[in-house]
Amino acid sequence: MTENSLHREIIELHAQNPHCNQKLEDFSCQGFFQSEKTGNQCDIQLLVVSGVIAKVGYHLQGSALATAAASLLAIEIQGMNTADANILAQRIILYLMDSTDDSLPGDLCVYESIRRFPERFDCASLPWRALLIALEE
Questions:
Q1: Sequence-distant (≥ 6) Cβ neighbours of residue 115 within 8 angstroms
Q2: Which residues contact 130 (CB under 8 A, 6 or more apart)?
Q3: CA angle centred on 90, ends 85 and 94, rounded to 5°
Q4: Domains and their CATH numbers in the chain
Q5: Residue in 129, 133, 20 with CA at minimum distance from that of residue 68
Q6: Predicted confidence (pLDDT) per residue in 24-81, tens digit
Q7: From CA 119, how far away is CA 85, in angstroms rounded?
Q8: pTM, entire model
Q9: 66 membership: H or E segment, kind and range
Q10: Residues 6 or more apart in contact with residue 102 via CB below 8 angstroms
Q11: What is d(CA 116, CA 22) in angstroms, rounded to the nearest whole number?
Q12: What pLDDT does residue 77 have?
């Protein structure tokens, strides 16, 4: 199986130039997730104002794909209300685990290529799992 070349380009762009790759000093909630499979970890912070995610920051130790996934997450959820961000995170994880034919918005379309490679699921879902933990607070 091969990856879509546009998807690969998007992933590489985010891996090489990740957005919001910094810990926030001022945040409302935080989530940490460490993969049992790979040991990769993501610590995410959110500044939530009136139910809307105003800022996203994270620190990630993991693969280039995990870095790209965190960057895509940050761009996608900034400005989103927390309920919608929670739904999106669950949707991404289900998208990888299930054969649903739903399409994902914007650059999250890269998950169409990722889901053809189950060995990549752990890295691709890492920041989304940290986000779900942060939103539990």
A1: 95, 96, 121
A2: 31, 32, 33, 42, 43, 44, 58
A3: 145
A4: 5-136 (3.90.1010.10)
A5: 20
A6: 999 999 999 999 999 999 999 999 999 999 999 999 999 999 999 999 999 999 999 9
A7: 25
A8: 0.92
A9: helix 64-77
A10: 91, 95
A11: 30
A12: 98
- Residue 137, pLDDT score: 74
Residue 52 corresponds to which amino acid? Answer: V
pLDDT > 70 in the chain, percent: 96
| pLDDT at residue 29, rounded to an integer | 97
Q: Pairing relation of β-strands 29-34 and 52-61?
A: unpaired
Element (H, E) at 74: helix 64-77
Q: What is the DSSP letter of 78?
A: T
The two tokens of residue 117 are 């490679």
List the strands of the sheet with 29-34, edge to edge: 29-34, 41-49, 52-61
